[in-house]
Amino acid sequence: MTINNTDDRNDEPSELELSRFLPYRLSVVSNLVSRAFARRYETAFGLSIPEWRVMAVLGRYAPASSADICQRTAMDKAKVSRAVTRLVAAGYVTRKDNPIDQRQNVLGLTRDGRRIYRQIVPLAFATEREVLEGLNAEEVAQLDQLLTKLHARAATLAPGEGGDAPD
Amino acid sequence: MTINNTDDRNDEPSELELSRFLPYRLSVVSNLVSRAFARRYETAFGLSIPEWRVMAVLGRYAPASSADICQRTAMDKAKVSRAVTRLVAAGYVTRKDNPIDQRQNVLGLTRDGRRIYRQIVPLAFATEREVLEGLNAEEVAQLDQLLTKLHARAATLAPGEGGDAPD
DNA sequence: TGCAAATAGTTTCGTTTGAAACGATACTGG
DNA sequence: CCAGTATCGTTTCAAACGAAACTATTTGCA
C-alpha cells in the first residue's frame, strides 16, 4: 500500500544496469572479437581490418570498383579509398581507370595479392571457429538468424546505408 | 574423378564470402545499433556514447571512482577521463579528490545530472525495445545467452581486458 | 624511516575516423 | 549541343581514438 512512485503502472526498471543492457553488450562483444581479428591480421600480414575486408572482396569478386567494395564491405567510400591506397602501396592491389567510365576504378589483386588472399582465407575460418568455440551447431544457427533479424531492424533505425565504424 | 586440388580432404571453403562471415556480420550489426543509439542521445541530450555510459553508471552507482567507471563501462581510462571532463564542463558530473586516497576521483551526479539520468533511462529502454522488435521472448533470451558465451570466449582471445572501441 | 615499485588519473602523440568539400567525368533535358 | 545535375573517388578537416608517457600519490619492504 505504498503511496509514492509516479510510474507504478510501468514494468520498466527505473535504473539502468549496463551489464544487462543488450545494445551495450553487443558492442562490447563485437569490439572484443574485432580486436582479436585485428591483432591476428596485423601480426600475420600487416593488414588492418579495412584492408583485410578489401582483400576479402577482391579475392572473391575482382575486378571490382571502389563502389562495389563499399557495398560488400559496409564501409564508406573514404575508408575504402584509404585502404586501397595502402594496399596498392603494399603491392597487393592494382588500381586503374575504367575506360568505359573514367570516374570509376577497376581494382584487382596482384600476384602477391592473390598469394596473400589464399593465406587469408584459412586464417579467417580458423579465427571464426575459435570465436564460435563453445557454441554447438544449433547455437551457431541461432546466432546467424539473430544477426540477420537484427541487421534488418538496425538498418531501418540507423540513418545512412552501410553499417561500419562509429567508434 | 578429378586429379587436381591439393586440399580435397577439407570441407572448408577456399573462398571467403564476407556476407556469410559471422564476425564481420557481428561488427556490422553492432555498429548499426551503436549508430542508432548515438544519434538519439546526441539529438536528445548532446551526449556521446562514452558520455552516456558514464552517466548510466553514475546514475546507478555514484559515488564512484574513474577506475570503477572503467570496469563497468568496458572503456579504458583515457576515454573515461575525457568523457568525465566533458560531463563536468556540461554541469552533469562532479569530480573531487578522495580524501582517503588522493590519487582517486570521487565522481557523482549534479542535480542537473540526475535530472538528465532520469530522462536517459526510459529512452534507453525504448531504443532497446525498438532494436529488439521482431524478436520474440525466446529469441531475446537466446541473444542474451549467446552474447554471454561469446563474451567469455572473445575475452580470452583478445589481449587486454575491456571490450570497447576498435572501431 | 626511506626508497623502490605500484597505482590513479591526465595528457601527449601519432593514427584513424566520418562528414563534407572537392575535382573530374558522365548523364540529362531542353 | 550544351548547361545543369548527378556520380565516382580523393582529399581536407576537426574530432576521437589507443598506447604510452607522465605527474602525483600511496604502498611494500628493507
From TrEMBL, chains A, B:
Parts forming coiled coils: none
PROSITE patterns given in the database record: HTH_MARR_2
UniProtKB keywords: DNA-binding, Transcription, Transcription regulation
InterPro entries reported in the protein's UniProt record: HTH_MarR-typ (IPR000835), Metal_resp_HTH_trans_reg (IPR052067), WH-like_DNA-bd_sf (IPR036388), WH_DNA-bd_sf (IPR036390)
Domain annotation HTH marR-type: ranges: 19-152
SUPFAM superfamilies membership: Winged helix' DNA-binding domain
SMART domains referenced in this protein's UniProt entry, alphabetically: HTH_MARR
Gene3D superfamilies in the record: Winged helix-like DNA-binding domain superfamily/Winged helix DNA-binding domain (1.10.10.10)
PANTHER family: HTH-TYPE TRANSCRIPTIONAL REGULATOR PCHR
Listed name of the protein: Winged helix-turn-helix transcriptional regulator
Organism lineage: Bacteria, Pseudomonadati, Pseudomonadota, Alphaproteobacteria, Rhodospirillales
